[in-house]
């Protein structure tokens, strides 16, 4: 794809969504296209890992509803302070998938009040444009929606027609709401659309629940990832900081290689 040869600076000028621009600015500034998926169940673990990973990542991805001791004041406030301190964005992987009215409530209300703190969120394409419209209407902060267009797990039900429909939805709303995709391959040829690719691990090729992994180099050079998402490869490392540094440099080097070829 032509997009593969373009650097983030050049692509930034094609980005219509303010959150996409902001993310790319962070990526260039920190030389990081690494997103850490911090899937842990205690607030102290989340904050501890965010502190350790912060310097090396452009984004921290959460599943805020798996915390057993979530309290807005004790979880979100310190997390926002760490995001500010280390200059990373917060990505809540909520995978919204309902009718507009319900999504709007899930986004703004409840214990988690996602709209008040997340910079990015994931959405499914199944409900169609109404979901994106609802998010746009209920987001004063111009949230960046990232659409799940392909999945990493073996046996998932997404087919290529569905994937194509997701891409056209993302491309048609890239100025207001959707700014990227989660996928396993380069799908959009619009240089403003960012590709997040999960299923990346340096030391194993699968887990025991059908997850599949590739290396950072494969994700970026063969599959077109702009940002790699790494979870347990980081969070279960005996030396989180060194491992984060390693993933960060491998991913950034792969990006530099890609734009030079
Ligand atoms: N995630 C995937 N694959 C996908 C999608 C999301 O792994 O297709 I969509 C999420 C799940 C988890 C993270 O939060 O990315 C990957 O974590 P591990 O690197 O620990 O497998």
Chain-wise SSE layout:
Blueprint: H1 8-12, H2 18-30, E1 34-38, H3 43-53, E2 59-62, H4 72-86, E3 89-96, H5 100-108, E4 120-124, H6 129-137, E5 144-148, H7 160-172, E6 178-182, E7 194-197, H8 216-222, E8 227-230, H9 232-235, H10 240-260
Parallel strand pairs: 1-2, 1-8, 2-3, 3-4, 4-5, 5-6, 6-7, 7-8
Helix pairs in contact: 3-4, 5-6, 8-10
The structure holds 5-iodo-2'-deoxyuridine-5'-monophosphate.
Helix content: 40-55%
Number of strands: 8
What structural class do you assign from the helix and strand content?
Answer: alpha/beta
Averaged pLDDT, please?
Answer: 96
Biggest β-sheet: count, sense, barrel?
8 strands, parallel, barrel
Outline type: globular
DSSP strand (E) fraction? 15-25%
Number of helices: 10
Radius of gyration: 17 Å
Task: Describe this entry's structure for a reader.
By secondary structure, this protein is an alpha/beta fold. The protein is 41% helix and 15% strand. The chain is built from ten helices and eight strands. It has helices at residues 8-12, 18-30, 43-53, 72-86, 100-108, 129-137, 160-172, 216-222, 232-235, 240-260; strands at 34-38, 59-62, 89-96, 120-124, 144-148, 178-182, 194-197, 227-230. An eight-stranded parallel beta barrel has the order 1-2-3-4-5-6-7-8, surrounded by seven helices. Helix 5 (100-108) packs parallel to helix 6. The longest helix has 21 residues, at 240-260. The chain starts with 7 loop residues before the first helix and ends with a helix. The protein binds 5-iodo-2'-deoxyuridine-5'-monophosphate. Residues 37, 39, 93, 148, 151-152, 182, 198-199, 201, 211, 229-233 line the site of 5-iodo-2'-deoxyuridine-5'-monophosphate. It comes from Tigriopus californicus.
């Amino acid at each position: 794809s032509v997009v593969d040869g373009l650097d983030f600076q050049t692509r930034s000028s094609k980005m219509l969504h303010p959150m996409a621009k902001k993310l790319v600015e962070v990526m260039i500034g920190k030389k990081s296209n690494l997103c850490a998926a911090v899937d842990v169940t205690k607030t102290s673990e989340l904050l501890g890992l965010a502190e350790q990973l912060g310097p090396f990542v452009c984004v921290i991805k959460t599943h805020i509803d798996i915390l057993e001791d979530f309290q807005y004041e004790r979880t979100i406030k310190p997390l926002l302070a760490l995001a500010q301190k280390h200059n990373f964005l917060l990505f809540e992987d909520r995978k919204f998938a309902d009718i507009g009215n319900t999504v709007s409530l899930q986004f703004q209300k409840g214990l988690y009040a996602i709209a008040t703190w997340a910079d990015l969120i994931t959405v499914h394409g199944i409900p169609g444009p109404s979901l994106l419209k609802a998010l746009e209407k209920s987001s004063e902060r111009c949230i960046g929606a990232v659409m799940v267009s392909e999945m990493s797990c073996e046996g998932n039900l997404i087919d290529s027609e569905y994937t194509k429909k997701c891409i056209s939805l993302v491309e048609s709303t890239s100025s207001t709401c959707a700014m990227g995709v989660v996928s396993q391959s380069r799908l959009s040829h619009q240089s403003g659309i960012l590709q997040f690719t999960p299923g990346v691990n340096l030391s194993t090729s699968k887990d025991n629940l059908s997850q599949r992994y590739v290396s950072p180099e494969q994700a970026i050079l063969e599959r077109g990832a702009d940002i790699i998402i790494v979870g347990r490869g980081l969070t279960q490392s005996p030396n989180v900081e060194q491992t984060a540094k390693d993933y960060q440099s491998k991913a950034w080097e792969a990006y530099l290689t890609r734009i030079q070829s």
